[in-house]
Write a structure and sequence with these properties.
About 20% of the residues lie in helices and about 45% in strands. The chain is an alpha+beta fold. It has a single domain, classed as 2,3-Dihydroxybiphenyl 1,2-Dioxygenase, domain 1 (Roll), CATH 3.10.180.10. The strands form 2 sheets. Strands 4-5-6-3-7-10-9-8 form an 8-stranded mixed β-sheet, with helices on one face. A two-stranded antiparallel ribbon has the order 1-2. The longest helix has 12 residues, at about 35-45. The radius of gyration is 18 Å and the shape is globular.
């Protein structure tokens, strides 16, 4: 298990080193026309392992998590609206966990970010929004944070 060492220092010397497990809060995200097919392929080709899957109201997955060592990759479905805009530009993003989502969204908007998905509640109990940065990169911000796998707790 990987841990992060944190030095606890007194005025003139190091007093102790405390080890903490890293708390991942930034997650790469990829979106596919057929996410279930992609999950199988990513496992076979690159060694990713299925970790979590959350179905929508119709039973199809709306959010999938894959593991690769201690890392987690989000896999989702590329919507027809997103694919129609620019298939290459809209299929990879970064998901960042934040605590105060609506305030975060307003700060991003006031700073000139293009909000491409207004804050919304998900089928799996989180709240999220999406924005493009100054170069058009896609960022997702939300309240969802996966539980670390048991072997990393």
């Amino acid at each position: 298990m990987e841990q992060i060492g944190v030095l606890l220092a007194g005025k003139d010397k190091i007093m102790a080193m405390e080890f903490r497990k890293p708390a991942q809060n930034i997650f790469p995200s990829v979106y596919y026309r057929d996410p279930l097919k992609a999950v199988e392929w990513l496992g076979q080709a690159f060694g990713f392992q299925k970790y979590q899957m959350y179905p929508g109201e119709d039973g199809t997955p709306v959010h999938i998590e894959l593991r690769f060592g201690p890392g987690i990759l989000f896999v989702g479905s590329a919507s027809p609206e997103v694919l129609a805009q620019d298939p290459a530009l809209n299929r990879v993003g970064i998901y960042v966990t934040v605590e105060h989502l609506d305030a975060h969204c307003e700060q991003a908007r006031e700073s000139g970010a293009e909000i491409v998905m207004e804050p919304m509640d998900t089928d799996y109990g989180a709240r999220q929004y999406a924005a493009r940065d100054l170069d058009g990169n896609l960022w997702y911000f939300g309240t969802y944070r996966p539980d670390p796998p048991n072997d990393l707790q």
